[in-house]
């Protein structure tokens, strides 16, 4: 079984800050493998280990060369090899463009049975890229998936929560799955994984080799931070827990929280 | 000159930080307050290959360089200094001694088990009458009928109650005329008849670390327990202590980084006079001094580790790093408490633990005074 994990090398939001005018300052935020994608890598690794499959990382990077830390960090987390589409023109690519580039690269890799991704990226959080990639591929897409089970010959079983419980699908053809952040706990790579990562294959695909794209870039016109009201300055005495909870609920209701 | 860390070194920092935050941070305060040895952490450290970082992969190590090892010690110490001393004594002292001075057979018997963390190792040099003056060993190991008979005692031995393997120093020839050349090193396994360990000390800092006495009463060691040659023990001890000093410098850097991180966070959150105290110049200057002090210590530490990687002499550089980093950690942790005000003096915040833990880095593996002796001797040679 060949599994592709789409991962994003993105600025760590924990190191971003918001300035007074509401703009997010990413300048000091170092790039990391999106923590949601680390979950996808872990799920892929567990499946591949169970069915002797292969896990290929796939990333679209808006830089002319592949940052070695991007591939090594992802490889250390359990990928067998990495394919990267790196091109300056993809800097600030739209979600549609990214999804399309991923779909082309997945076709190029060939014989892919399953594509896994995090539900969201840590910086943009559009929650769309995996579905868009599936659309371009003409494959089914599932989001919000908490559990993936693969048994030899019988396809892929996916479970995701619904408003009233959960639903389980069995998919018998190539599919794209976006996983919830808590689908599994991604293991922390060991020191031996660090050296091993440097020895695994990394392949760079040129954007040109993927053919002309249909999607067009977009521009972000502006960002603002959500407005928040003045502090209520209320202190609740929690000696009696149930009374305190009632009081808190009352304050929230009065403040218009429903 | 290149101050950029390699990908491997950067990755080591990322991965060990993630490990420390996930596995060590949740228990660090509790084990300290209860003086509880974190036995449950040992298999986790082993699983992440943290017990043999700078040793070759074919010997069960992770095959990384000494700078990466220093970074790993730093990141562990940033969260839990107790855990870092377990890794440090095992790696920099015990394993380093066996790897560098062991026969092929001894290496085969011990290195893979130790580097993989299947077994834990200690380094037993200090005695009641032989602290800084390590040459004053009173323990003896006398060769008789093809066996060494070990007698004596050791004090302050890290992991004494938990280790499987001990590198023990003793006099094989008590003739005073021989001096340090009468001292030899041995690999001693726990559980040998006549070998017992006393209860762990209750300590001011590193409270969860196990530090105990060892007693040897007619312990019979096979002749092949001798590490290196007879009379080489003191040389072995001094050479591995160089490596150890880089490890302790890294520990001090990590403790200080943890204290600085906590102080920065607190300075942003604590409001006095209507604004976060981080807006006050008095606090800003303290933070700036702490950061400068810390960065200088880190560079000295990485420089010593880098020389170690190059296979060059690094005794003086290790002494520079340990002397400066140990004192720096005490200063930085002290200032972190100052920035925390009264809260800093309570167990509700991590900086009082950093302050208590920092002090030992000025004492063990050669006190500040010993480091000054090493440095000044080289200057005046
Ligand atoms: C938590 C902990 C863990 C330890 N772990 C280990 C371990 O795993 N293995 C091990 O073998 N040991 C270990 N030790 C022992 C440690 O290395 C010694 O405590 C240290 O070397 C100092 O020796 P001492 O305590 O006997 O002090 P002393 O040698 O009695 O020193 C007392 C003071 O006199 C100063 N002094 C002594 N001689 C001189 C001199 N010539 N010139 C100037 N000043 C001098 C010292 O610097 C110090 O300030 C540990 C100690 C502690 C507290």
Keywords:
heterodimer; A: 258 residues; alpha/beta; Rossmann fold; seven-stranded parallel beta sheet; three-stranded antiparallel beta sheet; globular; B: 381 residues; alpha+beta; Butyryl-Coa Dehydrogenase, subunit A, domain 1; Butyryl-CoA Dehydrogenase, subunit A, domain 2; Butyryl-CoA Dehydrogenase, subunit A, domain 3; 3 domains; four-stranded mixed beta sheet; four-stranded antiparallel beta sheet; 10 strands; 53% helix; 15% strand; binds flavin-adenine dinucleotide
Structure overview:
The complex is a heterodimer of chains A (258) and B (381). By secondary structure, chain A is an alpha/beta fold. Chain A has a single domain, classed as 3-Layer(aba) Sandwich (Rossmann fold). Chain A has helices spanning 35-51, 68-76, 95-109, 129-137, 191-199, 241-254; strands at residues 2-6, 9-11, 17-18, 24-25, 31-33, 54-61, 81-86, 114-118, 141-145, 147-150, 156-162, 165-171, 175-179, 202-205. Chain A has a 7-stranded parallel β-sheet with strand order 9-13-8-1-6-7-14, sandwiched between helices. In chain A, strands 10-11-12 form a 3-stranded antiparallel β-sheet. In chain A, a hairpin with a 2-residue loop joins strand 11 and strand 12. Chain A is globular. The termini of chain A are far apart. The model of chain A has no long low-confidence stretch (mean pLDDT 89). Chain B is an alpha+beta fold and 381 residues long. Chain B has 3 domains: 7-115, Acyl-CoA dehydrogenase/oxidase, N-terminal domain (Butyryl-Coa Dehydrogenase, subunit A, domain 1, Orthogonal Bundle), CATH 1.10.540; 121-231, Butyryl-CoA Dehydrogenase, subunit A, domain 2; 235-380, Butyryl-CoA Dehydrogenase, subunit A, domain 3 (Up-down Bundle), CATH 1.20.140. Chain B has helices at 7-33, 41-47, 66-79, 81-101, 104-115, 233-269, 281-310, 315-344, 351-360, 368-380; strands at residues 121-124, 140-144, 147-158, 165-171, 183-189, 195-200, 211-222, 226-227, 271-272, 275-276. Chain B has a 4-stranded mixed β-sheet with strand order 1-4-5-8. In chain B, strand 2 and strand 3 form a beta hairpin. In chain B, helix 1 packs parallel to helix 3, helix 3 (66-79) packs across helix 6 (233-269) and helix 4 (81-101) packs antiparallel against helix 6 (233-269). Chains A and B meet through helix 2 and helix 5 of A and helix 1 of B. Bound molecules: flavin-adenine dinucleotide (FAD). Flavin-adenine dinucleotide binds at residues 89, 122-126, 131-132, 156-158, 203, 206, 211, 360, 363-365, 367, 369 of chain B.
């Amino acid at each position: 079984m060949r599994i592709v994990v789409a991962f994003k090398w993105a600025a760590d939001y924990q190191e971003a800050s918001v300035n007074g005018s509401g703009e997010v300052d990413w300048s000091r935020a170092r790039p990391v493998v999106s923590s949601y994608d680390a979950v996808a890598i872990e799920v892929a690794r567990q499946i591949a280990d169970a069915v002797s499959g292969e896990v290929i990382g796939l990333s679209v990077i808006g830089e002319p060369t592949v940052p070695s830390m991007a591939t090594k960090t992802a490889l250390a987390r359990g990928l067998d090899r990495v394919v990267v589409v790196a091109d300056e023109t993809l800097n600030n690519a739209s979600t549609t463009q990214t999804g399309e580039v991923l779909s082309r690269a997945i076709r190029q890799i060939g014989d892919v049975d399953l594509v896994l991704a995090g539900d969201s990226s840590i910086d943009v959080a559009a929650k769309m890229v995996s579905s868009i990639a599936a659309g371009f591929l003409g494959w089914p897409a599932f989001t919000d998936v908490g559990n993936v089970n693969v048994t030899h010959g019988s396809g892929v079983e996916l479970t995701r929560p619904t408003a009233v419980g959960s639903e389980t699908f069995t998919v018998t053809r190539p599919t794209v799955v976006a996983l919830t952040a808590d689908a599994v706990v991604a293991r922390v790579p060991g020191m031996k994984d660090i050296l091993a990562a440097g020895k695994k294959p990394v392949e760079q695909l040129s954007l040109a080799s993927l053919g002309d794209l249909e999607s067009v870039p977009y521009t972000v016109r502006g960002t603002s931070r959500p407005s928040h009201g003045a502090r209520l300055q209320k202190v609740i005495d929690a000696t009696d827990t149930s009374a305190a909870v009632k009081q808190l609920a009352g304050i929230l209701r009065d403040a218009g929280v429903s | 000159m290149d101050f950029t860390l390699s990908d491997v070194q950067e990755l080591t920092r990322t991965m060990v930080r993630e490990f420390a935050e996930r596995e060590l941070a949740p228990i660090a305060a509790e084990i300290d307050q209860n003086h509880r040895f974190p036995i449950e952490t040992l298999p986790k450290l082993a699983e992440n290959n943290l017990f043999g970082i700078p040793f070759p992969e074919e010997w069960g190590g992770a095959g990384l360089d000494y700078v990466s090892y220093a970074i790993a010690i730093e990141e562990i110490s940033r969260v839990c200094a107790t855990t870092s001393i377990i890794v440090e004594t095992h790696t920099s002292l015990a394993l380093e001694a066996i790897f560098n001075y062991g026969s092929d057979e001894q290496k085969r018997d011990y290195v893979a088990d130790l580097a993989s963390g299947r077994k834990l190792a200690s380094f037993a040099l200090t005695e009641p009458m032989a602290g800084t003056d390590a040459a004053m060993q009173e323990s003896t190991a006398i060769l008789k009928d093809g066996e060494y008979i070990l007698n004596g005692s050791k004090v302050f031995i890290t992991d004494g109650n938990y280790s499987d393997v001990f590198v023990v120093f003793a006099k094989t020839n008590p003739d005073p005329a021989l001096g340090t050349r009468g001292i030899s090193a041995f690999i001693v396994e726990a559980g040998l008849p006549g070998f017992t360990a006393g209860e762990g000390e209750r300590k001011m800092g590193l409270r969860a670390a196990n530090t105990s006495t060892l007693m040897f009463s007619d312990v019979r060691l096979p002749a092949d327990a001798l590490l290196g040659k007879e009379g080489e023990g003191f040389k072995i001890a001094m050479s591995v202590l160089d490596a150890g000093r880089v490890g302790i410098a890294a520990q001090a850097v990590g403790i200080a980084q943890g204290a600085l991180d906590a102080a920065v966070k607190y300075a942003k959150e604590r409001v006095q006079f209507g604004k976060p105290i981080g807006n006050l110049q008095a606090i800003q200057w303290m933070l700036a001094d702490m950061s400068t002090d810390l960065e200088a210590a880190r560079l000295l530490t990485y420089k010593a580790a880098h020389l170690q990687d190059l296979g060059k002499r690094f005794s003086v550089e290790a002494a520079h790093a340990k002397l400066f980093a140990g004192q720096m950690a005490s200063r930085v942790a002290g200032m972190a408490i100052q920035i925390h005000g009264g809260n800093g003096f309570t167990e509700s915040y991590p900086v009082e633990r950093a302050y208590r833990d920092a002090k030992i880095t000025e004492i063990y593996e050669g006190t500040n005074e010993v480091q000054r002796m090493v440095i000044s001797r080289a200057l005046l040679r």
